[in-house]
Amino acid sequence: MSAISVRNVWVEFGDQVVIENLNLEIASGSFVSVVGPSGCGKSTFLRMVLGQDRPTRGALLLDGRPLRDEPDADRGVVFQRYSVFPHMTVLANVVAGYEFAQSPLLGRLFGRAKRQAVEKAEELIEAVGLAAHRHKYPLALSGGMQQRLAIAQALAKDPKILLLDEPFGALDPGTRAQMHALLKPLWARLGMTVIMVTHDLREAFGLGTRVVAFDKVRHDPQAPGRFGARVTYDLDLTREGPVPV
Ligand code: ADP
Ligand code: MG
C-alpha cells in the first residue's frame, strides 16, 4: 500500500487553480524529490500533505486513510528557514518536538516521561552532530546548524513522513554536502517516507529514489489566472541504482 495516495486532487484558491488533477502514489520508505519552477505549487503540495491546505477536489490518503484521521505527529516538516523556536535552546527545541508528539494537547511532559523525552532528544542531537551546542540558542548557530536542529526537531516526532521544503536552499555548497551526508543515512536508518522540494537537481537525484517534476500548465486559455501544477516527469531511480551527489 502507498504511504501517500494523491487521487485526482485539485487545490484552488478562489478561481486560481494551483494544483490541477494531481495523481501520485508514493511508496512507503521512498525518498521523493520534487522539482519545478517557482510558483508552480510545490509548497502547496507539501502543505496539503501536512494537512494545512485542503484539496478542493479529489482524495488524499495516508496509509489508505483520509488525511484528517491521521495524527499530525505522523508528519515532520522542515522549511528553508525559521522552523525552530528562537527562544528555546537546541535541547529544548528537540524536547518540544518530542513532547508535541507524545502529548499534542498539553504539549508538555513531566517526571519519567520528561526524562525519556530529554534522553531521546540528546540522542537525536548527537545524531545530527550538535551535541556540543545543545545549550545554545538558535541565533548562536550557523545556518547549517540551524537546519540540523530543525531536522532533529522534526525527527523527534518519530514521523512516518518527513516533509522538507527547500531545506538546504539557504546554505553554501560545502554545508549542503554535509547535510546530504547527514540526511541520507538518517533516512535509510529510520525507514521513513521523505518528500523533499529542491531547486538543486544534483540534490534531487543524489538523495531521491524518485524525482517528480511539477510544472505550471495553463488551465484555461480564456482565464489567464488559471494555472495548475501538473507532473511533467516522474523518474524511479531505484531501477538505475544510486546516483552520487
Ligand atoms: P512553489 O512552492 O512551487 O514556489 P507555491 O506552492 O508556494 O509554489 O505557490 C503556487 C501558487 O499558489 C502561487 O501562484 C501562489 O501565489 C499560489 N498560492 C499559494 N498559497 C496561496 C494562498 N493561500 N492563497 C492564494 N494563492 C496561493
Ligand atoms: Mg515553495
Can you lay out the helices and strands and say which pair or pack?
Blueprint lengths: L1 E12 L2 E12 L3 E5 L6 H9 L6 E6 L2 E2 L8 E4 L11 H13 L8 H17 L15 H14 L4 E5 L7 H18 L2 E5 L3 H7 L2 E9 L8 E10 L9
Parallel strand pairs: 3-8, 3-9, 6-7, 7-8
Antiparallel strand pairs: 1-2, 1-4, 4-5, 9-10
Helix pairs in contact: 2-3, 2-4, 3-4
Bound molecules: adenosine-5'-diphosphate and magnesium ion.
The site of magnesium ion has 3 residues, from helix 1.
Pfam families: ABC_tran
Family: Belongs to the ABC transporter superfamily.
GO molecular function: acyltransferase activity; ATP binding; ATP hydrolysis activity
Descriptive account of the structure:
- Helix 3 (111-127) crosses helix 4.
- The strands form two sheets. A six-stranded mixed sheet has the order 6-7-8-3-9-10, sandwiched between helices. A four-stranded antiparallel sheet has the order 2-1-4-5, with helices on one face.
- It is globular and about 60 Å long.
- The mean pLDDT is 87.
- With 245 residues, the protein is α/β, with parallel strands linked by helices.
- Strand 1 (2-13) and strand 2 form a beta hairpin.
- It has helices at 42-50, 90-102, 111-127, 143-156, 173-190, 201-207, and strands at residues 2-13, 16-27, 31-35, 57-62, 65-66, 75-78, 161-165, 193-197, 210-218, 227-236.
- It starts with a strand and ends in a 9-residue tail after the last strand.
